């Protein structure tokens, strides 16, 4: 039966798993839940956690490609080089799952994760970057003609868009306003309604993020000229449906996809939806590299795993077990309030920076 939409089936199974197995919000008691799940165990459509590809599980250690060498360690004397990658990260070749797919596990240290997440919420979310964001449709402005867009002015009826983050951190329900923002654009802006890049509309691409991504590509001997990014902001209730990234004028260059905050299930399928996709666990600080065939494959994020960003106890204080007390101490001592807000956000959300080359010949002036 090769005509079934296997991608959609897997999305449903994973979403159900999130709703019925993982959710604490259900009014059902633990015993009731166990009973439900026991009944479903005989049902082959039930999703099982052991289907998840988790490179941190020893059974996937054979997929590890290269051990990192000295030249990868490019931290300066004292000051952190934010475009460097974490020298303790592991590179996994996931070609057996999808040809050309790599996962750099722990590509970013915890400090780097918080640095890039701060950039994403404080800077990349702002006017220069999000004039094509989803808030325009929420607030009723759907103008997308070139004359309007080329002015890169915010729509008047979007409230406080330039202060979205600042206004959000002190709300009664933390981040209530900010959580309405689902994506913003860096570099070449992508119009999700027209499914096109807007050649006359671009913001400057942050050079440090561009070099981080080329550094990541170099880890697996790939190269790209970074021209565009979509920054996705996922509250834990959000997901991204299966899709292809085929609006770029070249698909021969890799996509670099950086995960921050809560872990998620990333599905990678095939060039058609009729092939069953593989669920891969992506954690904060991981980078997925889609190159070769995998660049042409359906993929999506059906599930964000709430409360899975636990950086302080895991990385800063690995030897101590009293986590909640430690979290409090560490937050008071180690982080200023800005970083504390970012950590708080990351504990209930996921950020994905999805970085691409758009043009075949970026150095030539003309746009195709
Ligand atoms: C995208 C995308 C995946 C993710 O932005 O096109 O596929 O991990 N994102 O959020
Ligand atoms: Mn994509």
From TrEMBL:
Domain Fe2OG dioxygenase: 225-362
Pfam families: 2OG-FeII_Oxy_2
GO molecular function: broad specificity oxidative DNA demethylase activity; ferrous iron binding; oxidative RNA demethylase activity
Keywords, ordered alphabetically: Dioxygenase, Iron, Metal-binding, Oxidoreductase
Chain positions recorded as Fe cation binding sites: 243, 245, 299
Ranges in coiled-coil conformation: none
SUPFAM superfamilies listed in its UniProt record: Clavaminate synthase-like
Protein name: Fe2OG dioxygenase domain-containing protein
Organism: Spumella elongata
């Amino acid at each position: 039966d090769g005509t079934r939409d296997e991608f959609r089936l897997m999305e449903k199974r994973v979403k159900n798993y999130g709703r019925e197995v993982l959710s604490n919000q259900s009014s059902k008691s633990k015993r009731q839940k166990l009973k439900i799940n026991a009944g479903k165990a005989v049902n082959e459509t039930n999703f099982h956690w052991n289907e998840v590809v988790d490179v941190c599980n020893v059974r996937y250690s054979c997929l590890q490609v290269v051990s990192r060498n000295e030249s990868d360690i490019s931290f300066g004397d004292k000051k952190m080089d934010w475009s460097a990658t974490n020298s303790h990260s592991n590179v996994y070749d996931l070609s057996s799952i999808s040809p050309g797919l790599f996962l750099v596990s722990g590509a970013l240290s915890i400090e780097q994760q918080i640095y890039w997440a701060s950039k994403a919420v404080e800077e990349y979310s702002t006017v220069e970057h999000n004039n094509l964001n989803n808030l325009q449709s929420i607030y009723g402005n759907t103008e997308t003609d070139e004359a309007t867009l080329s002015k890169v002015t915010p729509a008047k009826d979007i409230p406080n868009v330039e202060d979205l983050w600042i206004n959000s951190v002190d709300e009664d329900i933390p981040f209530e306003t900010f959580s309405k923002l689902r994506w913003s654009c860096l570099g070449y802006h992508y119009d999700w309604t027209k499914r096109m890049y807007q050649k006359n509309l671009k913001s400057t691409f942050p050079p440090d993020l561009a070099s981080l991504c080329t550094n990541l590509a170099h880890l697996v001997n790939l190269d790209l000229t970074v021209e565009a990014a979509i920054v996705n902001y996922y509250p834990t209730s959000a997901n991204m449906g299966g899709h292809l990234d085929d609006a770029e004028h070249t698909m021969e260059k890799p996509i670099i996809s950086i995960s921050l905050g809560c872990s998620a299930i990333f599905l990678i399928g095939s060039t058609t939806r009729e092939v069953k996709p593989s669920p891969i666990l992506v954690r904060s600080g991981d980078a997925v590299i889609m190159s070769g065939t995998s660049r042409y494959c359906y993929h999506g994020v059906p599930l964000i795993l709430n409360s899975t960003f636990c950086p302080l106890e895991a990385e800063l204080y690995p030897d101590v077990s009293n986590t909640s007390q430690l979290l409090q101490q560490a937050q008071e001592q180690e982080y200023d309030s800005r970083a504390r807000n970012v950590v708080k956000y990351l504990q209930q959300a996921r950020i994905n920076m999805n970085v691409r080359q758009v043009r075949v010949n970026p150095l030539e002036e003309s746009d195709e």
